[in-house]
Design a protein that fits this description.
Layout: E1 6-10, E2 15-22, H1 25-36, E3 51-57, E4 60-66, H2 77-90, E5 97-102, H3 109-122, E6 130-135, H4 141-148, H5 152-160, E7 163-167, H6 173-186, E8 190-194, E9 212-218, H7 221-231, E10 247-253, E11 256-262, H8 271-284, E12 291-296, H9 303-313, E13 324-328, H10 336-344, E14 349-351, H11 357-370, E15 390-396, H12 400-411, E16 426-431, E17 434-440, H13 449-461, E18 470-476, H14 482-495, E19 503-509, H15 516-524, H16 526-534, E20 539-543, H17 550-562, H18 572-598
Parallel strand pairs: 2-4, 2-5, 5-6, 6-7, 9-11, 9-12, 12-13, 13-14, 15-17, 15-18, 18-19, 19-20
Antiparallel strand pairs: 1-8, 3-4, 10-11, 16-17
Length: 599
């Protein structure tokens, strides 16, 4: 699915979600303070992560997400995409307004290009939800702005956005909120968000005969018991802790009937046991559960556990995540896998440390509302271990030893040596909850044309029907010889320019990848930067002796797959269409030459 395909959400009247982006941290904090009516958003030290502040302002639940300096050169493309994911999680189900807080004197053409790239990756509709905000203490600002508008990049940006607004020390909260309200109205009170990030819907009121049928899933038996007793706070007897089978209890929240099912610890259990208990939990709350609460310890939540949760939820039905909310059993920093789980749940979360029964029940009610009273069923045909997402990689480059070492590091004992003829071989391994396939493409630039075409087509066909998710160019850190650059030209000529959208570079080292000399060399070497730019700036530095870094490589490949502009993978159909297109261009060129000769 294209990253800029959109889905529309109707907003609750009382909620306004605002994202601040710009090239000056103090100015973004100042604008946040103006919106909140107090110095709540200010942080004297700039951070490298998104900061979220929530407050009730003018009868609106105001959510302010202040981003780090996304326009600077310190973030790679992958890091930018990670920050954008985090921004969407904090502003779920999506921002209503983007405030582009700019310092005109320091705002360059490069800043504009990067800002447009960011907004376009959020959504094709993002500019319609954007307001340029300038902070100034000068009275002659209008004259200054007219001079700034003589700069083409600023004028072009203003033309794309809704309007420009000036803030200063005398600007009050209501005045700025009025400007935001104009943008919300201009967009029909709709919020636009990339469907690739989230997929949910706001729906009609709760039906009169609705009930809350809740299933608790997670590892910690004691925490599940505490939460179950907390939800049905009028129980005279607590849920008894069971590590073997599911148990349930009934109660009421006001006039709404409640059923809470506590499942046993599913992790490390057999497929049959998991299927049996999921079916039992559905039977306990017929016609089926409408809320799933996923209990996790955020600082200890691993990728393996996240994949296990996904597989367990697949036993309910395909909409299970739409009915799910993450419950944090402990305070602490969230792991990347915890954030991914939150994203899958549209950012819905509750912390048990809040101990706020009303808040929790309102969140549960909202899930039921959003799903129009629908419920989940047991999908008996699903087998736990079969539900593995795939990640298909093709490694290429002239440096065969480094390429092979990367393949061996990914595949471990599943690695099979390439055949002596240098033909492509596909190896498979289950890793980090993924079914990972790796194909090593031998160097092409010195091969005859027919062999190049045969080998390149096979490298793609081995990943059918899903297609190739990422082509990985493997290079050691160091000066680039001519053969590396010739190989890149051959690849682009053979696979077409579209292959650039699916290519990332892995620079291999045998020391700490963050060593300043290595980072500096990659950023300052012109040949390397040229290749990086041709691949959209997507690269990582990998210590090939550190197997723990393989998860970073797979994460980078998954992120790239997630943000594809054109399609989700490069398939044999893509390859064949590009070859036909090249032949058509060649035929047209020959015809033009023949016409000229006849003249």
């Amino acid at each position: 699915m294209s990253h800029n395909s959109t889905v529309v959400f109707f907003l609750p009247v009382s909620e306004l979600r605002v994202v601040l982006i710009g090239n000056n941290w103090p100015d973004r904090c100042f604008v946040g303070d103006v919106l909140l009516g107090a110095s709540l958003a200010r942080n004297k030290r700039e951070t490298d992560s998104c900061l979220c502040t929530k407050r009730l302002v003018d009868n609106k639940n105001l959510v302010i997400v202040n981003t780090p300096d996304l326009l600077s050169d310190k973030f790679t493309s992958f890091q930018l995409l990670k920050h954008m994911n985090e921004c969407l999680r904090l502003s779920a189900p999506g921002p209503n307004v983007f405030l582009l807080v700019l310092k005109p004197r320091n705002f360059t053409e490069d800043h504009k290009q990067k800002l447009c790239w960011i907004l376009e990756h959020f959504s094709a509709e993002a500019f319609k939800h954007s307001l340029i905000v300038i902070r100034s203490s000068r009275e002659d600002f209008s004259e200054m702005w007219e001079r700034f508008m003589t700069l083409s990049h600023l004028a072009d940006l203003e033309e794309k956005c809704r309007s420009t607004f000036l803030v200063n020390q005398t600007t009050d909260t209501l005045k700025l909120l009025e400007q935001l309200e104009l943008i919300v109205r201009a967009n029909g009170r709709k919020s636009v968000i990339c469907k690739a990030f989230l997929d949910s819907a706001i729906t009609p009121p709760l039906y009169a005969d609705a009930s809350f049928r809740i299933v608790l899933l997670g590892k910690g038996e004691e925490k599940k018991t505490q939460l179950g007793n907390f939800i049905v706070d009028r129980w005279h007897r607590s849920i008894k802790i069971s590590v073997v089978t599911s148990v349930f209890k009934s109660g009421k929240w006001g006039d709404i009937p409640l059923t809470v099912v506590k499942t046993p610890n599913f992790f490390h259990q057999s497929d049959e046991m998991i299927k049996t208990e999921i079916k039992r939990s559905v039977d306990f709350c017929k016609p089926g559960p409408n809320v799933l609460l996923l209990l996790i310890k955020p600082s200890k939540f691993t990728e393996k556990k996240r994949r296990a949760f996904s597989s367990i939820l697949s036993l309910f039905s395909e909409d299970a995540f739409k009915h799910s909310m993450v419950v944090m059993t402990h305070d602490g920093a969230e792991t990347a896998s915890a954030r991914e789980l939150l994203k899958a749940c549209d950012g819905r979360q509750y912390s048990m440390s809040e101990h706020n029964h009303q808040s929790l029940m309102k969140m549960i009610e909202k899930i039921v509302l959003q799903n129009e009273g629908s419920f989940l069923t047991f999908e008996e045909a699903v087998v736990y271990k079969e539900n593995k997402p795939t990640l298909n990689l093709v490694l290429w480059g002239t440096r065969q030893p480094e390429k092979t070492l990367v393949a061996k590091t990914i595949l471990g004992p599943n690695y099979m040596d390439a055949v002596p003829s240098g033909d492509c071989v596909r190896n498979l391994r289950e890793l980090c909850g993924l079914c990972v396939s790796v194909v090593e493409l031998p160097p092409l630039h010195k091969k005859p044309h027919d062999e190049v075409m045969k080998t390149s087509f096979k490298s793609v066909s081995l990943s059918d029907p899903e297609g190739v998710d990422a082509f990985i160019l493997v290079l050691p850190v160091g000066p680039l010889p001519d053969e590396d650059q010739e190989e890149l030209k051959t690849i682009q000529s053979t696979f077409g320019s579209q292959v650039n959208d699916f290519t990332m570079i892995v620079f291999t080292v045998e020391v700490d990848p963050t060593t300043p000399t290595i980072v500096k060399f990659i950023k300052e070497n012109k040949d390397i930067q040229k290749i990086c730019q041709s691949c959209g700036g997507r690269y990582i530095i990998l210590n090939i002796r550190n197997k723990q870094q393989i998860s970073e490589l797979l994460e980078a490949a998954e992120i790239m797959k997630h943000f594809q502009k054109s399609q989700m993978s490069y398939t044999t159909k893509t390859y064949i269409c590009l070859q036909r297109e090249k032949e058509s261009i060649k035929d047209e060129y020959i015809l033009n030459l023949e016409d000229k000769l006849e003249d």
